[in-house]
Amino acid sequence: MTDPGSRNGHAVQRFFGVLLVAAGALIGGLSGLCTLFGVGAGLLEMLAHPGDGLSFIGIALAVGAIPIIVGVGLFIAGRGLVRGAGPPSGPATSGDTP
Fold first, then answer.
1. Considering only CA atoms, which of 63, 71, 59 is closest in space to residue 29?
2. Residue 1: inside a domain, yes or no?
3. pTM here?
4. Does 68 reside within a domain?
5. SS3 90
6. Tell me, what DSSP letter sits at residue 50?
């Protein structure tokens, strides 16, 4: 018979892992889209006025890289929690086996 405390612990670990994965995906994904928009705007600025868009691209990459890294880190940490919260490795024994 399995210990109910360990089963609940795995459920809580899995729940927080899924929360971290979702938060990391949202933070990283939305920051990535925003950074992509900023880089695209900088490229369009370079087409209109050559040489002026490089600073905008640099700012977009510098500001956008931090939340992207945080989002990817949360995603990886959450994935590790979800994978580590699998079922117990074997049945629990009470010590008096036949």
1. 71
2. no
3. 0.71
4. yes
5. coil
6. T
